[in-house]
Amino acid sequence: MAGGLPPLAIAPSRRPHIVGAANGSSGPAVSPEPVSSTEVARAWESFAAGEDVVAGVRPEILASWYRCRDRYEVDRSLDVAPGARCEDIQRLDNGVIFTTLGGLGALAGREVEQDGAVVTVTDGDGRVLGSWGDPAAQRRAELHNLAPWSSWSEDSTGTNGMGTSLEVSGPVTVTGPEHWCEAFHRWACAGISIRDVVTSTPVASINISRWNASLSPLTPSWLIEAARCVEKEIYRRAMYETDKVWAEFNKKSGEVGVPVMAMDRGGNAVAANEAAASLLGLASESPVLTGALEPAQRWTPDIPGLADVVRWAKERAREPAQWSGYAMLPVGPGDEETPVTLQPVTDSDRTVGMLCFFGMQEGEAYDGATEPAAAAMPQRIVGIRNDRLVLLAPTEIRYAEADRNIVWLVTERGRIQASTRGLDNVERSLAPYGFRRVHRRFLINLRRVAELERGIKGELFLITDSRSHEFVPVSRRHAPELRRMLGV
User: Residue 137 pairs with which residues in a beta bridge?
Assistant: First the structure.
């Protein structure tokens, strides 16, 4: 394989155990290890009928079933994947990435022909871009529309290797009746998402599917290496973009006499001059002061409303040349609103970053008329602990804490990892239940705040359980709004 990948061997070393299919389907279904296909099929029937807690199902699969049933409302009797809608098609800004991934898929497809398997590649929306492998297996897959220009996102087609891999990090295997749609219960598949190193969002996926037979336990390892090969291209592009942003920052920060901060296209700070660092309260050793060239070094500005303004600016910057816009945001001492002007940094008509000029008012005014985020209204919040799925009522959660893209829910039952990645995503799920962002890393359940404490330097801390001495920090920018909400 290209890029130093090991040979792709997907057939298991021993004959898989075959058992009867669920719910009257003709023919055998695949038996995952170590739980038998029959147990999973029974669990699927029970869950699809409305039961909540199901034993004998892997937590990542059960979490996917919850999404399919309660959030996406996918029809479990679906037998053909829908075609991709035009509005789902991503802008092909990732041409080099898809070229690399397509070449890898074609090579892998030749290797799996003898095993009766199909290799597919999708974009970040789950739209199939290419399919390779055994011709007979491809013809069978086409009966379910597992072919280019079909949509295999989880919200379209339920639990499957491609769609579910776009929802989580790392490789995902879906075997037999672990699929949400019964028509796919005789397939085994394994997929992995390719993620943008800047935004952590999925830009593509690669998947291997096999009819009426299981996959080798080594398949996920091959997928991990394949993803790394493609992500090297993404990293190279990200560093090229960083050079553009860094050069523009150095040029503009010397031309204006105001605080300036540079951000990547994900809204993370890449660089700031001394005036901006002082305004934002950054420590003198912050890598942003010398240039956070590596994505892992970057800092997310804790300025309420900035993320929405950046999204607006990126949309508006697509049309007119030399566009700029400004918004009034709570920045600096006393959290008084300050004009912040945004200017895009572009490369070949693509926005690769943004410059923020604090205290400067220039260009189009931001009116705040953005579409509100669609808040999920789950009856339960799903967490994972010790390979088990934990179902939580929102009232059980005292606060949520982010550790990069992993979110921990602090509850009466201890710290539980949220099944949803990213604090912004968890916030959308919990906001309808009285949770508010009080810090770039913390959400607090306002109903569970028992005490407030002020630090020696005037910092504000929230206490949800005086017995456990839990202190949730409140950033100075969120403090005024929090006091208003709590009536103190």
Answer: none
The DSSP string of 229-271 is HHHHHHHHHHHHHHHHHHHHHHHHHTT-SS-EEEEETTS-EEE
Judged against a pLDDT cut of 50, whether residue 371 lies above it is answered with no
DSSP H or E stretch at residue 430: helix 423-430
Structural domain for 451, as ranges: 381-486
Q: How many domains are contained in the chain?
A: 3
pTM of the complete model: 0.74
Question: Domain for residue 272, yes or no?
Answer: yes
Band of pLDDT at residue 88, cut at 50, 70 and 90: very low
The C-alpha atoms of residue 257 and residue 244 are separated, in whole angstroms, by 21
> Looking at the predicted structure, is the pLDDT value of residue 332 above 60?
yes
Mean pLDDT in residue range 48-75: 86
Q: Which residues contact 404 (CB under 8 A, 6 or more apart)?
A: none
Read off the tokens for 262.
Answer: 């540079």
* Residue 240 structure tokens: 């090229």
Token pair, residue 358, equals: 């604090």
Q: What is the pLDDT of residues 418-449, one digit of tens each?
A: 888 788 888 888 888 889 999 989 999 998 88
Residues in the chain: 488
CA angle 193, 196, 374 (to 5 degrees): 80
